[in-house]
Amino acid sequence: MNIDSFICNAIKYIAKKINDSLIIYDVGCQWSLHFAEYVNNCYGLTLPDDTEIVAIVGKFYLSAHKLACFPRHSLNFIVEAKQVDRKILETLWAPFNKISSKAYFMSLANHQKILNDYMHNSNRKKLIQISECLYLRLIEIHLNIIYS
After folding, report:
1. Separation between Cα atoms, residue 100 and residue 127, nearest integer Å
2. Fewest Cβ atoms nearer than 10 Å: which of 1, 21, 27, 67?
C-alpha cells in the first residue's frame, strides 16, 4: 500500500504538467497488474483521469524475471526513455552505512535521530542537485529546439 500511496500522491502533484508516468520498480510487472484495482478499491487513493502509467523493471532485476517481461517492462523499448544509473540505490546507501555503524552503539532514540537527520540531509542535498540538473536539462532541450 505504501508504494501505491506514494505514486498516487506524486502523480497528483505533477499532473498539471505531465500526463504520462514511467515508474521504474523492481517488481513493476506484478505491481502494475494490480495497481489500478488497488486505486479503485481504496478510498484514499486517486489518480487524475488522463494519467497513463508505464511500469518498468530495472535492468538489474529484469534479468531475473520471465522472458515475457523483457519486451513489456524494459527501458530498451520505451520511446524517449533514458537509461538510468542502475547502481543509484547502492550509491545512496554507501554513505548511510558509514553513519549507521557509528550510531550502532547509541541508545535507540539517539540512533534513530542520527539516522533520520542523515536521511533528511541527504534528501535535501538531492533536491538541490536535481533542481540544478533539471535546469541544465531544460536549457539543453531549448537549445535543441532552437537549432533543429
Report:
1. 22
2. 67
